[in-house]
Specification:
alpha+beta; 6-stranded antiparallel sheet; about 120 residues; 3 helices; about 25% helix; Alpha-Beta Plaits
Length: about 120
């Protein structure tokens, strides 16, 4: 009796494609005001030490960040960004090129240090 071939399930297909795919890299763009000690090079080094790939864009305080999703979480990235800013005056606007979402964090006002969705 001939053997019946079974169609692969969606779960098996997604597991096979995930195993062959490269690790997910999320891309973000950010604009920073008042980084710690007003030193953008130090800010870049701090982010690179936390596991992010940072490229300074031609605009003065704009950066492109690549976050390997398997190495650093979104929460860890937000924490690294917040620690690189001036505790009284620093602010950042963060755009996700992957999802299109945007967040603003300001150390002024009634919610300092909190990333608020825009």
């Amino acid at each position: 009796m001939p053997m019946k071939l079974q169609r692969p399930t969606a779960k098996a297909a997604s597991a096979a494609s995930a195993a062959s795919a490269e690790p997910a890299i999320r891309v973000y763009f950010l604009e920073v005001n008042r980084c710690l000690h007003d030193a953008s090079r130090r800010f870049i080094r701090r982010l690179q030490r936390s596991g992010l790939v940072v490229v300074k864009l031609p605009h003065k305080t704009a950066y492109r960040i690549e976050r390997p999703a398997d190495i650093i979480t979104f929460m860890q990235m937000k924490r690294a960004l917040a620690l690189g800013l001036n505790p009284q005056l620093g602010s950042v606007i963060l755009f996700s090129a992957t999802t299109g979402n945007a967040w603003v964090m300001s150390n002024r006002g009634n919610r300092p240090g909190v990333f608020q969705p825009v």
